[in-house]
Structure of Putative MFS transporter:
Amino acid sequence: MTDVTLPSGGGAVAGASSATTASDVMIAARLDRLPMTGYQKLIFGIIATAWFFDSIDLGSLTFLLGSIRTEFGLTPAQAGFLSSMSFLGMFLGAAISGMAADRIGRKLVFQISMIFWGLGSVWCYYAPDATTLGYARLLLGFGMGMEFPVALAIVSEFVPTKKRGRYLAILEGFWPLGFIAAGLLSWYFLTHFSWREMFLAQAVPALFLFVVRFFVPESPRWLADQGRSAEAEKVMTEIEVQVRKRLPAGAKLDEPKPLPAVARGERRFSFMELWQGEYAKRTVMIWLVWFFALLGFYGLTTWLGALLQAQGYTNTKSTEYVVLIALAGIPGFITAAWLVDAWGRKGTCALMLIGSAVAAYAYGNAPSFTMLIVFGLIMQFFLFGMWSTLYAYTPELYPTRSRATGAGCASAVGRIGSLIGPALIGVVLPNLGNGGVFALGAGSFVIAAVAVLTLGVETKGRSLEEISS
C-alpha cells in the first residue's frame, strides 16, 4: 500500500484517493490519533445510556421475583426456570446479532435490539400467567442479548487505543448503576403499584433508538473493512471535523501512523476464523471465562432477593438490602477501569474473579446478618469489577471483520451459563442450602480465573489492528 498520511490538520491529502485515505489501516490510524473529546464522549454516553436501560430491564427480576413467585404460586425450580428464560433469549440474541453486525453494520443492529426489548417489556406487563411471562422475558432477553456485542464493537472501534480499555470498563460500570436503579424503581413500584407496572415503565426507554439513529454514526473501521471506502471516508471526515471543533484554539491533530496493510484475502470473515491459529486459543479462553463467570454471577444475583425473603425479610426490606450491597459495585468498576490500563486486562480479570470466588463463599457462610452485608459488599465490588474487565477484554481479541461475531459468540456462550445458573440454583437450594449455592458460584469463578491465567493474552496499550495482526 502507498504510505499516504494526513497532514497535521486532519483532512484528506490533496490528490490522495478516497480508497487510499479510507483503507482499513488508514482509517484505524486516523481514529487512534484523535484526542478524546466531547464528540467521542457523546457517542460513548449514548451507548452507555442504552446499556444502563438494559441493566434495569435485566436486574429488575432480582427484585420482582419474590412478588411474581407469590402471585403465581411458583416453586423454587419453577422460579429458576422463569429467570432462565431471559438468558435463553440473550443467548439467541447475542449469537445472531454479532454475526449480523459484522455483515450489515453496527448501527442498524443496535437500533433493532432496542425494539425487541421494548416490545418484550410491554408483553411482560400484560402476561396473564407464568408461562406467558416466560415467553415475554424470552423476547426481552433476545433484544438485550443483541445489544451487548454490538455496543462493545462500537465503543472499541471509536475510542482511541490509549483510552479504549478504560472506556470499555466504564461502559460496564453503567451496569451496576442500572442494577441499583432497578432496585430503587422496583421498591417504588412494589410499594405503590405492582411488578407489572415496573415492566411497563421499562418499555419507555426503547424510544431512545431515535437518539442512536440521529447521533451515532456507523463505524468507519467496519465500513473500510467492508471495502466501502467512500462511505468510510465520509464518516471519518465528519468525525475529524467534529473533533477539531472541540480542540483548543490553535491545536492540531497528530499525523496518523498506519500499520502495514494486510492482504485483502486474509481479511475475509467466516465463523471458522474464530478457530484458526491464535484465535482458537483466544476463543477457548474467552468462552470458558464467559460461561463460568456468568453461571456464577447470575446464579447468585438472580436469587439474592428471594434468598433474603426466604430468611424472613419482606419484599421491600430484601430489596433495600440488595440495593445496599449493589452500591459496592460502583467502586468496583471504577477500580477495574483504572487497573485495566495501569496493570493490564489479564491480571485484572483474574484478580476480580478470584476475589469474587472468595467473597461469594464467605457470603454463603456468613455467621451473622452484619457479616452477610459486609461479605455481600465485598462480593459485589469484585463481581462488577469482573464485568468491567471482561467487557473491556473481549472485543479486543478479534479483528474488525469478526469483532462483533467474536464478542457475540462469547456472550452467547456466557448466556448458556446464565441460563443454567438460576435453574441450577433452584435445584441446589432445597438440597444444600445457601452454603451450597454460594460454594457453586465460587467454584465457577475459580474455573474462569484459571482459564484466563493459563490461556489469556495481554492487550494493554496495543491498537486493535496490532492485536489482530
